[in-house]
Amino acid sequence: MKYISTLFLFFLIFSESRAQGTLPESFFNGKAVVLISSDPGARPTLTWKQLADSIHTSLVAAGADPVAYFELEQVSVSEEIQADYAKAFGIRQVKNIILVTRQKNQTSIHVGPFSDNGQMISSTSLFGKVGQNYSEAISQFAAIGEGLKSNNLLVLDVPEFLSISVQEATATLKFLPRNPLNLDVFKLGIPIEGSSSQTGLLSYFNYDNYGKSQETILAAQANQKSGIEEILKQQYAFQVEWLTEAKTNQELIENRVQFILMKVEGREADLMQSMGSELSPSTDMNRIVVKYYIKLLVRDELYIGPEWDADPDWRVSLRKFLINLKK
Questions:
Q1: What SS3 string covers the chain?
Q2: What is the pTM of this model?
Q3: CATH architecture, range 6-166
């Protein structure tokens, strides 16, 4: 795995997104998985599954073969989960990824070839259509199939929601409800924004990210880095190293970086299930929280700490996680 500078990643994203990509050749002759990100504040109110019902016919009319629908946020909840979903898509011989992003003021539909690895897509410069609402977007997208022959003949009449559960996707992961040893001996690597190149491209199409200006993203990055440094000074006594350029695991280990501070954001119930934590009756199934954990590179183990400490505010979540590291 390689960790990439967040500044570089988003420079790459925005430079690529200025030029629209071309429709993949496999679009008319290959299976597609549809990943939907829908802002709950958009009107009229639609769940992601209801949105899938609304767009399926138009995707088929465009010439696609959408074999399964998933919510983007659940697929990209963490680097490890996304990689396992990618493996499942590979087994099913998926050729294309269709991304539907519904926001308050617009809806976009993009399609790109499946990268056959954990990134899902190899670029954000994808063929796409954008409308002021989802009806306009799907109408524009359906029109690309006019006058063109599709070899996707035995397509589904209705959208299918495959039962690749979070538990199934994380069955082989080693989430451990305790703290790692030897933090005082080896460095803790900290990627800017707590994210990696494995999930960055796909998360770009999240309804809360898509279309943000470069200046807005860079300002948020600088603000978060400053905030992390302040919290680390108060709560973490050992060596850290900021990961600002691409390095392999071996290069990191040779530089005595054996631990990586990881950050995920998603619905609390999804995160708790994926990490093996028991849900309480009071758990808000839709509360969006940030959770930090530490990845041990040499054994690919994931330490979530002795207590569940996720919080909607990343600063609170990080502070609580670092305090729990002392236990």
A1: CCECCHHHHHHHHHHHHCCCCCCCHHHHCCEEEEEEEECCCCCCCCCHHHHHHHHHHHHHHHCCEEEEEEEHHHHCCCHHHHHHHHHHHHHCCEEEEEEEEECCCCEEEEEEECCCCCCCCCCCCCEEEEECCHHHHHHHHHHHHCCCCCCCCCCCCCCCCCCCCHHHHCCCCCEECCCCCCCCCCEEEEEHHHCCHHHHHHHCCCCCCCCCCHHHHHHHHHHHHHHHHHHHHHHCCCCEEEECCCECHHHHHHCCEEEEEEEEEEEHHHHHHHCCCCCCCCCCCCCEEEEEEEEECCCCEEECCCCCCCECCHHHHHHHHHHHCCC
A2: 0.70
A3: 3-Layer(aba) Sandwich (3.40)
